[in-house]
Write a structure and sequence with these properties.
The chain is α+β, with helices and mostly antiparallel strands. It contains 5 helices and 11 strands, in the order βααββββαββββββαα. The chain starts with a strand and ends with a helix. The relative contact order is 0.14.
Length: about 230
């Protein structure tokens, strides 16, 4: 049996030209106004998504642009500026219609293979502190095994590093006794060091509170003869 799993890959747009950055800002601000109920020129598919967001979320807060899966695309190539490029739909005022711009995007290396093989679902364009990000929703189908010969459950904890239980035998195993012993050992060392510091501080305090009378008189005499 196959099961579809969705994972979000957070990638950053970079090396944007002034024109592309201007178009992104315009589209983003127009999306916020449309979510609030204004009638503003937007890419048609993006305008539909803004209507859905208006019904589902609070328009008082800035919302990321929803990029429908049929208008967004990610490609991989060997161009020197960027290994990955993402197509972002925008409304181009100069052309008076919807358009698309290809933006260089930095995808984490660990996600290269995932983005290459997955189907990109509805994603988001996010503006944060003047920088642009795309949250790519990657969907892949995995073969899920329906029957198992045994199941091992592992619980991670603070007192015991790990506890495992086998379904077939119901045998429970506790791990971490040696780690707990070492922790207790160093806890006692820190405790003894702390006590030693307190004793040393008390000795210093006693010396400063009960100064040598002869030294005090010498200091007082020097003060009078200045």
């Amino acid at each position: 049996m196959k099961k579809e799993v969705a994972t979000t890959v957070r990638a950053k747009l970079h090396s944007l030209t002034g024109v592309k950055r201007q178009l992104l800002h315009r589209e983003y601000d127009a999306f916020q106004r449309t979510v609030s109920g204004d009638d503003v020129d937007l890419y048609s598919a993006t305008k539909q998504q803004a209507g859905k967001v208006r019904k589902q979320k609070n328009p008082r807060y800035e919302q990321p642009i929803v990029l429908r899966n049929d208008v967004i695309n990610v490609v991989e190539n060997d161009r020197p500026l960027s290994k990955h490029w993402v197509k972002v739909p925008v409304f181009n005022p100069e052309k008076g219609r919807g358009d698309s711009i290809w933006c260089p995007v930095e995808i984490p290396e660990k996600d290269h293979r995932l983005v290459r093989k997955a189907n990109i679902g509805d994603s988001e364009l996010v503006r944060r502190n003047g920088e642009w990000y795309v949250h790519l929703v990657c969907k892949r189908a995995y073969e899920v095994q329906e029957t198992y010969s045994d199941v091992l459950a592992i619980d991670m904890g603070a007192r015991w590093i790990a506890t495992s239980v086998a379904l077939s035998t119901r045998e429970t195993t506790f791990y971490g006794s040696e780690v707990r012993r070492i922790r207790e050992h160093y806890k006692q060392i820190r405790k003894s060091i702390g006590k030693a510091k307190v004793r040393k501080a008390r000795r210093s305090l006693n010396v400063s509170v009960t100064p040598n009378p002869e030294r005090s008189m010498i200091g007082y005499t020097r003060f009078l003869t200045r």
